[in-house]
Amino acid sequence: MTVMAATTTDNKELPPDALAETVGPVLVITINRPDQRNAMTLAAAQIIADAVDLLDSSPDLAVGVITGAGGTFCAGMDLKRFALGERPRVPGRGFAGITEAPPRKPLIAAVEGWALGGGFELVLACDLVVAAETASFGLPEVKRGLAAAGGGAVRLPRRMPLPIALEILLTGEPLSADRAAHFGLVNDVVAPGQALDRALELGRLIAANAPLAVRLIKQLAIDSADWPSSELFSRQAPYVDPIFASDDAKEGVTAFSQRRAPRWTGQ
User: In this structure, what is the dihedral angle of CA atoms 244, 247, 250, 255, given to the nearest 10 degrees?
Assistant: First the structure.
C-alpha cells in the first residue's frame, strides 16, 4: 500500500514531496525532495499528516518510521517557499503535519545526514531515533532571526540536560550523532546508509508486541512526565487497568504457557 501526492506546475507532474509505504506492520514515511535536502513543503506536510492518520487508524499497522531520501533527513522549512508566504504546517498538527500532534502509535526517526531546524523538530516528535554516524542535528533558527517554534525550544530541554539544550538553541551550532547519543537523544548510531534498516528492525520488535499495551504504555510514559510523585500510581490506573483486563493480556499468558507466539487482537 502506498500513499502519495504529487504537485504540478504548468500541468507537468512532479515527483511527490513525500511518500508512505507499508513494510509489513511498519509504515515508512519518506520525505522525497533530495535535491532540496528534503526541505519541508506544505505538500509534504499534508502527505505526512495523512500518513499519520493512516498509521493510527489501521489495525494492520503497528509502528511508523520517518526518514529522508537521498542521504539527508530534512533541512527544515523550505526558506524559498517561506519567503513567498508558504508555511509547511497543517492545522491541528503543526510543522510537517506532525510536530504538534504525533501519532498515538510509536514513531521512529531514521536519520541520515542533516536534521536541521524543523527537521530536528521532526526528530524530537518521534519516540525513538536511529542515526547514521555522519548524521548531524541542529536548530539554527537564531542565525536567521527565527525561533525553533515547531517544538525545538520546548522539547529539547526535556530530552537532554538544560545547559546542552541551551547551547544548541542559543548558538545554532550542530550536534553530532555521537554527542546526541551520549546525551540520550539517539537510541542507536549505525554505519552510514544503515539507519532505515535498523529503524525497521526496531519497528518489527515493537510490532511483535501487544498493540493495546504498546499504545497505552507510550501514552502513559508521555503523560506522566510532569505528574507529582505522590500521584504516579493512582494516575497510571486508567492506562494500565485496560491492559491487564484485555483479551491480549490473557492471550499473552496463554501463549507463554503453551510456548507459542501470541496472536494479538488489540482488544
Answer: -130
pLDDT value of residue 186: 97
Active site residue 173: no
CB proximity list for 155: less than 8 A, separation 6 or greater: 121, 124, 125
Q: Return all residues near 262 (Cβ < 8 A) that are at least 6 apart.
A: 210, 248, 251, 252, 254, 255, 256
C-alpha cell at 30: 519518506
Residue type for position 129: V
Sign of the C-alpha dihedral, residues 16, 18, 20, 21?
positive
Q: Among 13, 141, 173, 201, which one carries the catalytic annotation?
A: 141
CA–CA separation, 66 vs 94, rounded Å?
Answer: 16
Burial tier of 78 (Cβ tally within 10 Å: 0-12, 13-18, 19+): buried
**What tens digit of pLDDT does each residue of 64-84 get?**
999 999 999 999 999 889 888
Find, among 175, 142, 145, the residue nearest to 159 by Cα: 175
Tell me the per-residue pLDDT of 103-145, one tens digit each, with 9 for 90 and over.
999 999 999 999 999 999 999 999 999 999 999 999 999 998 9
The closest alpha carbon to 211, from 222, 223, 199, 203, belongs to 203
Catalytic, 251? Answer: no
Please give the full DSSP string across 187-211, using - where no structure is assigned.
Answer: SEEE-TT-HHHHHHHHHHHHHTS-H
In DSSP terms, 12 is beta-bridged to: 9
Q: Select which of 13, 112, 121, 201 is catalytic.
A: 121
